[in-house]
Design goal:
Elements (H helix, E strand, L loop, with lengths): L1 E10 L2 H10 L3 E14 L10 E8 L5 E9 L7 E9 L2 H15 L2 E17 L2 E9 L13 E9 L4 H14 L10 H4 L4
Antiparallel strand pairs: 1-5, 1-8, 2-3, 2-6, 3-4, 4-5, 6-7, 7-8
Length: 193
């Protein structure tokens, strides 16, 4: 099992940060579009600070590339949480997983986000850093988040490396000039209850 450690920030100028990211040795590994659906059963998961998410990933021409189902466990103060993720190779299977979650487990979609994402990676001796720039340009997004740009600085590590990763993520964000982190996920930022 792995722990995801991330720190999230709202941006005013995506292009300026992209230059800084590249100047710090990160490599652009993808520009994609994502459609995320978050599910729960009568708040049973969210009350325990957990969530189930399905994702569809599309290229620039909106052709399906991949999908996944992910359980995100309870989060700490910098959004460090255990995760279990399963990759899905076609959109029919993503639909089937969502149907199974609903019919067999009673998990219903309560939030959806559509985002334009730029993904960057940097290998260091401390581990792999990932940066994701998310632009919520689509009118289908919740009003509080629509039209906004966020950046996540993240690492995925073994549980015993969690404390070290929290410090490293904070340090990397500071080096990139990012301040005032959100200790929330997109569901909370969007004000979804």
């Amino acid at each position: 099992s792995m722990v995801e450690v991330e720190s999230k920030y709202e941006l005013a100028d995506r292009k300026a940060l992209q230059k800084i990211i590249l100047n710090h040795g990160f490599k652009l590994t993808g520009e994609i579009f994502q459609h995320d659906n978050y599910g729960d059963k009568a708040r049973q998961l969210r009350d325990r600070k957990q969530v189930v998410r399905t994702r569809r990933v599309f290229d620039g021409g909106y052709q399906f590339q991949s999908g996944e189902i992910k359980w995100e466990g309870p989060s700490g103060n910098i959004l460090d949480r255990p995760v279990v993720e399963v990759k899905i190779t076609n959109s029919v299977d993503v639909d089937a997983v969502e149907t199974l979650l609903k019919k067999q487990l009673g998990i219903k979609i309560f939030a959806s986000f559509v985002k334009h994402r730029w993904h960057y990676k940097k290998n260091t001796k401390q581990g792999v850093f990932e940066i994701e720039l998310d632009y919520f340009e689509n009118k289908e997004n919740p009003e509080k988040i629509r039209g906004k740009i966020y950046v996540q600085v993240a690492m995925e590590v073994k549980p015993e490396k969690r404390e070290e990763a929290v410090g490293l993520v904070k340090l990397m964000a500071k080096e990139l000039g990012l301040t005032s982190a959100y200790n929330k996920d997109y569901i909370d930022i969007a004000g979804i209850k």
